[in-house]
Amino acid sequence: MSHKLTASAKQADTIIKNLAKRNMEGYYFDTAAECTRAVLDTLPAGSTISWGGSESIKECGLMDGIHSGDYRLIDRSLAKSPEESRALYAQAVLSDYYLMSSNAITLNGELINIDGNGNRVACLIQGPSHVILIVGMNKVVTDIESGIARVRNMASPANAIRLNRNIPCAATGTCHDCLAPECFCNQIVVTRRSGHAGRIKVYLVGESLGY
Q1: What whole-number distance in Å separates Cα of residue 142 and Cα of residue 43?
Q2: Which of 80, 85, 131, 211 could hold 155 in an S-S bridge, CB 3.0 to 4.6 Å?
Q3: Within 13 Å, how many C-alpha atoms sit on residue 207's CB side?
Q4: Is the CB of residue 151 less than 8 Å from the CB of residue 114?
Q5: Rounded Cα distance, 11 and 22, in Å
Q6: In degrees rounded to 5, what are phi and psi of residue 23?
Q7: What backbone phi and psi angles, to 5 degrees, belong to 29?
Q8: Beta bridge partners of residue 86, listed in sequence order
Q9: Which residues make Cβ contacts (< 8 Å) with residue 26, sequence separation at least 6?
């Protein structure tokens, strides 16, 4: 094991202990492949599964795994109209498992997420029976303030370019605290504790995932 990976594992252990204090469960895996296998092992056949927009859950192979498994998937990207999208979202809120990442996580175990429509953070806060987050150790920050700065100046510009959004950060690579019509930094949510023990599970990965 490399020194960097050893340090990541020790750092993850600190985060996992702090997550437990916040009524959330944490797990650590050196590789995305190991993490994906562990998550799939926890998903019972026939479960209803939905997810929020996340490059991390794509990159780790989890999306491929659930599409090839015996699950009932709620995929809002298949909606053919705003009305159908809204109906699918209503189903996602009542799903058995909701999959997502976190834009940042502090060493103290706080989750920081910035969202456009709010559907992702809404399901994190309440609704689905279980929420599973796949978080690469590249998203670890020291505190909430640095977490918000990380999202706005690293994750959001990359996502803006990926989604071809006409907003300032896509042009400059840094946050302008804009109020542009296509801005997706509309909701800033800090999860400092879960009100339901065992509902939120954070799977930390010693590899870089997402933005």
Answers
A1: 32
A2: 211
A3: 15
A4: yes
A5: 17
A6: 70, 25
A7: -135, 140
A8: none
A9: 12, 15, 16, 19, 20, 109, 201, 202, 203, 204
d(CA 166, CA 192): 32
How do residues 132-174 score in pLDDT, each as one tens digit? 999 999 999 999 999 999 999 999 999 999 989 999 999 999 9
Interatomic CA distance for residues 1 and 8, integer angstroms: 11
Q: What is the pLDDT of residues 4-13, one digit of tens each?
A: 888 889 999 9
CA dist 175 and 92 (Å) reads 31
Amino acid of residue 179:
L
Both tokens of 15, joined, read 């985060």
The residues, ordered by sequence, that sit 6+ positions from 79 with a Cβ below 8 Å of its Cβ are 85, 87, 88
- Is the pLDDT assigned to residue 3 strictly greater than 90? no
One-letter amino acid for residue 150 of the chain: R
Pick from 168, 170, 172: nearest CA to 159: 170
Residue type at 142 in one-letter notation:
T
User: Strand order in 111-115's β-sheet?
Assistant: 140-141, 104-106, 111-115, 187-191
Q: Find all residues with CB under 8 Å of 144, minimum gap 6, and list them.
A: 106, 110, 112, 190
